[in-house]
């Protein structure tokens, strides 16, 4: 089995002065892109990475539900695919979105409540005003555009992987359906998903239940993740389960892989948002969760029939990331 972690090469982390100026940064290491499927832990990981000194979090610009004042471009589709033939205007629009992203979004995510928010914003504002902060660009919906973002902005991708049983069970709890016309209406994207083309078209015409939707979506995303892993040995690939079992050690290694400082404050923050004092299941939106107990939540949510369906439906792609006994 191939390693879940892939170290980054420092030389590839340097990106052109033009791109750096577009984003408004002085840091030459490039933004960190935290991506993967939705419900794979990208919010958790992005939040923890942004606890490093001199960083700022940019939260899901590719999310269709984001308000216009938070973004300077229209993604049009869930899981927009940007490629070499895409409209050149996207580059300037995404750059300005990163540069001007409203800072209070990060404060709300990490420090809910008016008093903590004000205190946190005051403490961190010096980094934003100096434009010296390193960007943590958290966006699962940018997954299919990861190569384009890396090429144009020197982003260092961290691809989150989550077991299909846990992924599908999370969709069921949320009641989240997926409209596959978001994929089928992007011809260039469909070329990269050729093994699933007919099934995507069928699901776009007639939507199945959430379990079958989740199986196909997981296959599409992690089929592509495996391609990324072969093409880009300098990217980081992290399994949600590995981080959840030992969060402090896992995040220490992840911080090192993307060249961020991990000290006592960061270790305390990891324990604060991932420790056993937190709820074992997520209630609403947030990052505070007992990460170890969360590993088994799928067992309470899925029936035996659903588990069997997920295992059979994802068997081929899942074997590239997990041993059969790893669930």
Describe the structure in your own words.
The chain has 327 residues and is of the alpha/beta class. The chain is 51% helix and 8% strand. The chain has a five-stranded parallel beta sheet. The N terminus is likely disordered.
Question: Which features would summarize this protein structure in a list?
Answer:
globular, alpha/beta, 18 helices, disordered N terminus, five-stranded parallel sheet, 5 strands, 327 residues
How is the topology of this model organized?
Layout: H1 10-13, H2 17-23, E1 32-36, H3 42-49, E2 55-59, H4 89-100, H5 104-110, H6 114-130, E3 134-138, H7 146-153, E4 156-161, H8 164-174, H9 181-184, H10 187-192, H11 197-205, H12 210-231, E5 236-239, H13 240-245, H14 247-257, H15 264-274, H16 291-294, H17 297-301, H18 304-318
Parallel strand pairs: 1-3, 1-4, 2-3, 4-5
Helix pairs in contact: 5-6, 8-12, 12-18, 14-15
Share of helix, binned: 40-55%
Placed side by side, the strands forming the largest sheet appear as 2-3-1-4-5
Shape: globular
**Uncertain runs:** 1-16
Q: Cα distance, first to last residue? A: 15 Å
Nearest-integer average pLDDT: 85
Please tally the β strands and state the result: 5
Order of helices and strands: HHEHEHHHEHEHHHHHEHHHHHH
Query: Beta-strand percentage?
Result: 5-15%
